[in-house]
Design a protein that fits this description.
The structure holds two protein chains of two kinds. Chain A is built from one helix and 22 strands. By secondary structure, chain A is mainly beta. Chain B: Plays a role in vesicular protein sorting.
Chain lengths: ~300, ~800
């Protein structure tokens, strides 16, 4: 029996561990199968150091043509299934061809790895970082093991961060002036602002502030644009009159936002917008969309 | 569809309550397991029920109260445990709610805990809350939300002496917060009227009125803030409130809020800020019921003034009267459409105020009345019942205050105001004046005043020219005239000369009253005059030789003429009585001719005017009674008069009446304390005649009815016999009495005699009396001894 079971088992157990596994921060990552796992978090220019251990199944040996570890940065377009595009690929050869009889460990190190893009899981596109260990074998195919990790890149507060202020309206119908305190927000930021009603001739019912994400993938004729509304935040209930000023205070932290990604490797972009929506009593919607930039602020703690 | 409205509303409310309870249940469960996130989630869902637009304010309130109770519990939870969250986190956490209304309710709830925790200055939290609430622009929802804010914050204001007061948190912040909430609420409230279709305007106005207390509550909170002293009230609070009130340009709000301001803030503040407060009044919408507002203000100030005399100097210092007067003038000017009643109410309130504050300034009172006259001028008589009522109030106020009609009589404008009343009310007012005089027992003591007074009440004194055939309720009329009669009695002056003038004046007025009034007004005048006559007489005795202009004679002349006026009515019985009264008074004054003249007049009346037999009986007895007491007449005059009286007696229609009158006449010849009039013979003659008549009566009764009448007449005559017998009339013999006894006894035992218990008892008493006298002995006893009963 044991023999039979062993035949279907992989010939070896490969595990990848990071040297600072215990101290490194882990973040959840959603896998293809829908499960969420905790994976280590890195940022660009970090050293990715660790070791892998290969342990043949009891009493077996592994013959191989060499063992290598790769660090891959991949962009995967869902509509182009299975077509990965590696924008980063680093390789470390760990062993020359030979045989492994017992558990063997190989340290590895990628120093100051350039990882310019953040991990991203979108509607149509995914950007991921993965460590891939390959034990090449002539027959029976190679043995591969993957270890995902997440990359997040932090930016300092932008030196120039103008408010967004604008007067818009429909002639003789509705004139408003709105102001958001910044044009660039970090992920845990608070939007402060106000809407000032200069002229109201329509009976408004309510006003929402939406945060929308526009993910565009591909280029040229092949561009796919996907827009999602991530937040729908009611700012006002009822009909204001001329001269009213409605405050805005919206905390971004509850929403699952990512930083703005502009033209990532010419493959995709992720942009964020504020959409101010006014709804009148006949459910007509009047809106004004403004692009904002979202960045990841270095957490000070 | 409209009829379904109420039912639907009930349904919606029920659904709302169900939803609310359900989520409240989950919220409690989350709280029990210390799950903040779920608790917030469910509480937000619970509060979402308040987002409904389908309920009327009344029903919405029901829902709100339920939510309120739940929020209280949530607040308690936050206060006690907070489940490890810092309050600042919590304050952020609740703001994640996507819907604004639940978000703000939660924010207020947590904000309250936040202030209590003192982790942030109260003023910052309050400011944040009141600002954030701007997101609700829907009137009903906004009002309730802000009212919730007001409710939870009112014990957390950084007031003086409050635990939330700090270096950075001053009472200014507290005031600022409440004011801002007030202003926003008022805006929402005012805006309510413009929302929805025009045909439902009326219903909306009703709903608005239901909500007004939510707005007014803020003013109440302001008034409760300790730190709002006079300076702050004058410099910040009041101007800000008034600015809002004036600017909102809404009738309902302006009226209500002005009233609120007046009611919630202390009197002394009003007094010191009178100018500011009043300056707002002319700026209000023309349709606002300012008169009520102002009159309430004046009422308050009046009460304040009345509360203690110590505050009066304050009133003087701020020239309250001048300011109020000025303001009223401006308001009346500004509100052209104000009904007369409104203006009068204002004047009336001002008057009340003046009476309380400046009781000594009669000129103020007159000034007010003058202004009122000016307003009324050209309007003629008022036919507006409300205005009329107000004028009555206006005119009554000085009477009540001064308790002295004389003060009112000094007011030149008083009668001019009264002129504008219609006849009916004029009478009522006159009645009020008289009541006041009666109540305070004021004596009107000079001719001028009497003249002024009668000028005032002339509505009662004579018929108005316009309505000749006014249908007047008799009872009312009688009452009115009775009060005039009372009034006449109140006229009095110690100086006879002045008194006479008064009498003449009154006479002049009452003689214009016409036949219906004279019977009421003449007698009191007569008696008042007679009082004067008696006074004169006693004075003469005391201070003889003093030159006194009015003589009794003169007065009697006037009286004679006055009574004559009654002939026009005619009321002969009354006139006769008055003549007799006068005659008696003349008798006391030893004025024989005068007394004779009065008697003559009385006799003439008896002969010519009194034809009713019953009236004749009464009259003759009056004449006899009076004549008996007259001692002023000489023999001749007396004879003439007694002869006449006896003659009249014998000519009465009914025999028993005749009999009684005749035996009464016997007294005319026997006056006990006057020896000159003791004519025993004629006494006996009278009595015998009476006996004859009694006999005749008895026979007549036998003939017509077949049974004997009462023996009462005989017994009565017997008593007369006994009287004169006792008095020593020698003509009355024992045998005559004895004979009478027998006659009576026979009569009483006769068969066709109708038993008369009264007569029996009378006779028995008479016998007992004789018996008693006998037993008593003495001179009288001896006299009675021969009589055998």
């Amino acid at each position: 029996m044991n023999y039979i079971i062993g035949a279907f088992k992989p010939a070896s157990n490969i595990s990848i561990t990071f040297s600072d596994e215990k101290t490194r921060k882990k973040v959840p990552l959603k896998k293809e199968n829908g499960q969420t796992v905790m994976v280590p978090l890195f940022q660009s220019q970090e050293n990715i150091v660790g070791q892998i251990s290969v342990e043949p199944v009891q009493g077996k040996k592994i013959e191989h043509n060499g063992i290598k570890i790769e660090l891959l940065g991949q962009i995967e377009m869902y509509f182009d299934r299975g077509n990965f595009y590696d924008f980063t690929s680093l390789v470390r050869e760990l062993d020359v061809p030979g045989e492994i009889y017992e558990r063997k460990t190989y340290p590895f190190e990628f120093s100051t790895v350039e990882m310019p893009y953040e991990t991203y899981n979108g509607v149509n596109v995914r950007l991921r970082y993965v460590l891939k260990v390959t034990i090449s074998r002539g027959y029976a195919g190679s043995i591969m093991e993957y270890q995902d990790f997440v990359v997040r890149n932090y930016s300092p507060s932008p030196p120039i961060n103008n408010s967004i202020k604008m007067e818009v309206g429909i002639e003789d119908c509705l004139h408003i002036e709105f102001e958001y305190n910044k044009s660039k927000y970090h992920l845990k930021d608070v939007i402060i602002g106000k809407i000032y009603f200069l002229l109201v001739r329509i009976k408004l019912k309510n006003m929402d502030l939406e945060i929308r994400r526009r993910e565009s993938t591909g280029s040229g004729a092949n561009t796919h644009v996907e827009t999602e509304t991530l937040a729908k935040f009611e700012l006002m209930d009822g009909a204001p009159v001329r001269g009213e000023s409605i405050p805005i205070r919206l905390f971004l932290s509850p929403y699952e936002l990512t930083p703005t990604h502009r033209n990532i490797n010419n493959k995709f972009s992720v942009k964020y917008y504020f959409n101010l929506v006014l709804v009148d009593e006949e459910d007509r919607r009047y809106f004004k969309q403004q692009e904002i930039t979202i960045y990841r602020l270095e957490e000070t703690s | 569809m409209i009829s379904d409205g109420v039912e639907d509303e009930e349904k919606w409310l029920a659904a709302g309550i169900t939803g609310l309870q359900q989520n409240a249940f989950y919220m409690h469960r989350a709280l029990d397991s210390n799950n903040v996130r779920d608790a917030l989630k469910y509480s937000a869902q619970m509060l979402s029920e308040l987002r409904t637009s389908r309920l009327s304010p009344h029903k919405y309130y029901v829902l709100y109260m339920r939510a309120f109770d739940e929020l209280r519990k949530l607040e308690m939870f936050f206060k006690e445990t907070r489940c490890g969250c810092s309050i600042i986190d919590l304050y952020e956490l609740v703001q994640h709610a996507g819907n604004i209304l639940p978000r703000l309710y939660l924010l207020c709830t947590v904000g309250s805990v936040y202030i209590k925790s003192k982790e942030a200055p109260a003023k910052d939290v309050l400011k944040d809350l009141v600002e954030m609430c701007r997101g609700i622009q829907h009137p009903i929802r906004g009002l309730f939300l802000r009212s919730y804010l007001s409710q939870i914050s009112k014990d957390k204001l950084p007031d003086i002496g409050s635990e939330y007061e700090g270096d950075a948190d001053t009472v200014t912040d507290a005031v600022e917060f409440v004011l801002q909430n007030f202003i926003e609420m008022n805006k929402l409230w005012v805006r309510m009227q413009h929302q929805g279709p025009a045909r439902e305007k009326e219903r909306r106005e009703k709903e608005r009125s239901e909500l007004r207390d939510l707005v007014g509550k803020n003013l109440h909170v302001l008034s409760q803030i300790e730190g709002v002293d006079l300076d702050m009230y004058r410099d910040t609070v009041l101007p800000r409130i008034l600015e809002q009130v004036v600017n909102c340009k809404d009738e309902l709000a302006q009226y209500y809020l002005m009233d609120c301001v007046i009611q919630v803030f202390p009197d002394e503040y009003h007094l010191q800020t009178l100018e500011i407060l009043l300056s707002a009044c002319p700026q209000l919408q023309p349709s606002v019921d300012i008169k009520t507002v102002l009159s309430r203000l004046m009422e308050r100030l009046s009460n304040y003034a009345a509360s203690s005399t110590e505050v009066l100097p304050e009133f003087l210092q701020v020239e309250a009267f001048g300011k109020l007067n000025n303001a009223i003038g401006k308001v009346i000017e500004a509100q052209v459409d104000m009904p007369i009643a409104g203006a009068v109410i204002l004047y009336s309130s001002l008057l009340t105020f003046t009476l309380h504050v400046h009781p000594d300034r009669l000129d103020y009172v007159d000034q007010i009345l003058g202004a009122c006259v000016k307003k009324l001028s050209g309007k003629g008589k008022l036919d507006d019942s409300r205005a009329t009522k107000q004028i009555v109030a206006l005119l009554s106020a000085p009477l009540e205050k001064y308790k002295d009609i004389e003060t009112a009589l000094k007011l030149a404008n008083y009668p001019r105001v009264m002129e504008h009343l219609d006849d009916g009310t004029n009478k009522v007012m006159a009645g009020v004046i008289i009541q006041s005089i009666m109540k305070n027992r004021t004596h009107i003591s000079t001719v001028d005043k009497v003249e002024a007074l009668f000028e005032l009440i002339k509505g009662l004194i004579k018929d108005s020219d316009e309505k000749l055939h006014d249908e007047i309720d008799e009872e009312d009329f009688n009452e009115e005239q009775n009060s005039v009669a009372c009034l006449i009695q109140m006229l009095y002056n110690d100086d006879p000369e002045e008194m006479l003038k008064i009498i003449c004046t009154v006479r002049k007025y009452i003689l214009t009253g016409g036949p219906k009034r004279l019977p009421f007004t003449v007698p009191p005048l007569i008696f008042n005059s007679l009082k004067l006559v008696r006074r004169l007489q006693s004075q003469e005795e005391n201070a003889a030789g003093e030159e006194v202009a009015p003589t009794p004679k003169k007065i009697f002349q006037i009286l004679n003429q006055t009574i004559e006026a009654l002939s026009a009515v005619p009321v002969p019985e009354l006139a006769l009585r008055l003549y007799l009264q006068c005659a008696e008074a003349a008798n006391d004054c030893d004025l024989e001719p005068v007394a004779y003249e009065f008697f003559t007049q009385a006799y003439i009346l008896y002969e010519e005017e009194i034809s009713d037999s019953r009236a004749q009986v009464t009259a003759i007895h009056l004449i006899i009674g009076t004549l008996q007491r007259m001692h002023v007449f000489g023999v001749e005059n007396r004879d003439t008069l007694t002869h006449k009286a006896t003659g009249y007696s014998a000519k009465l229609l009914k025999k028993p009446d005749q009999c009684r009158a005749v035996y009464a006449c016997s007294h005319l010849f026997w006056v006990d304390d006057n020896d000159s009039i003791k004519d025993g013979e004629r006494v006996l003659l009278c009595l015998k005649r009476a006996l004859r008549i009694a006999n005749a009566a008895q026979q007549m009764s036998n003939a017509t009815r077949g049974s004997g009448g009462s023996v009462a007449l005989f017994i009565e005559i017997l008593n007369k016999y006994l009287y004169f017998f006792e008095k020593g009339n020698s003509e009355i013999s024992v045998s005559a009495i004895q004979g009478l006894f027998e006659l009576i006894t026979t009569e009483m035992q006769s068969e066709n005699m109708t038993p008369d218990p009264a007569a029996d008892a009378f006779f028995a008493s008479t016998l007992r009396y004789i018996q008693f006298q006998k037993q008593k002995g003495g001179a009288l006893g001896e006299k009675y001894e021969p009589i055998k009963a």
